[in-house]
Amino acid sequence: MRRRDLSKLEKYNEALTDFIKLSEIDPNNDLNLYLYEIIDEILEIEPNNALAKIKRRKVKKL
Prior knowledge:
The protein has helices at residues 3-25, 31-45, 50-61.
């Protein structure tokens, strides 16, 4: 994996963790659509990212 992708992935994982916390507090917030876009980008870089896969299932349920 390229250095740029790793850096981007680290930032996405941090953002994803923050959004998970937000969605637990307010599951109907407008950020969930944005979160879904971030999850797609994470999975493009790292298709087996477990955190993204779990959150994708949760967001789809909303």
